[in-house]
Amino acid sequence: MLNFFLLKGLRPLKIMLKRRHTYLKKDAFRWRLKAFPQNKTGVLMLQERGSRRVSLSHIEVSRYLSSSVLHLLLARPPFFQGIQDMTDDALKAYIIQHPPVVYQAKRGKHGNPLFCLANLHTLYIAKNRFRDSDKIRVTLVEAPPIQKTDAFALLFALSAEACHALSPRESGHYLFALWKDLASSQPTSLLGLSENFSSKTAFCDAFKLNRRLY
Fold it and tell me: Which residues of the chain have pLDDT under 50?
């Protein structure tokens, strides 16, 4: 009889604890969605914040990019080796078409630098050719979670390269390195980009790459 009343008294407590556990799981899930914004396909997303013309001195490479990812993004082989021989007007036309993608640090104050997350080559070309006081147009996005900065930079790079109308054969190692880094850090984003990115074999087949070389 005593055991019966004990069990009867514990049942509401068990239900209450179960509900609390459910609420905690939901809260944790909501926190993950807030911290790592994703759309329904699972691909990481950043909200666009418009565009702006800013001085080159006001832009710097994101300080939260790891050295390995930064080196990878800058290792993209150029299609034309003689970029330094191009005219200022030609380079300005390139910058207009491929503006740096930047964000402002959270709680940033007016005058704080903008951090470049994508189209790093555009920023480097501009800084190497033009004065710090010269202005270029940039595309603004919301600030990513610090721990996801690498993933967003890789996603921007891979999505851009996949849409370029150039043969990927000369850039095969670069393309596969982008895929490999995303596959290890944010695999759901690959599926969000394309079903062809779901595996090494499918990825190489989509770009007509010899998977045995990678």
Answer: 1-36, 40-42
Answer whether 62's CB lies under 8 Å from 153's CB. Answer: yes
Own/partner long-range contacts of 195-203 (Cβ < 8 Å, ≥24 apart): 197/158, 203/176, 203/179
Q: Do 115 and 61 contact (CB within 8 A), yes or no?
A: yes
Nearest to 176 by CA among 148, 147, 145, 213: 213
Residue range 93-102, pLDDT digits in tens? 999 999 999 9
Of 120, 123, 127, whose CA–CA distance to 153 is shortest?
120
Distance CA 132, CA 56 (A): 5
Residue 57's Cβ-side half-sphere holds a number of Cα atoms within 13 Å equal to 5
Q: How many residues does the chain have?
A: 214
Q: Are 131 and 90 in contact (CB under 8 A)?
A: no
CA nearest 69: which of 157, 146, 171?
Answer: 157
Which residues sit opposite 103 in a β-bridge? 115
Cα(85)–Cα(82) distance, rounded to whole angstroms? Answer: 5
Amino acid in position 103? Y
Residue 51's pLDDT is 95
| CA–CA dist 189, 186 (Å, integer) | 6
β-pair type (114-118, 59-61): parallel
CA torsion sign, 162 to 158 to 118 to 84?
negative
Backbone angles phi, psi at 52, to 5 degrees: -160, 150
Rounded CA separation 191/96 (Å): 30
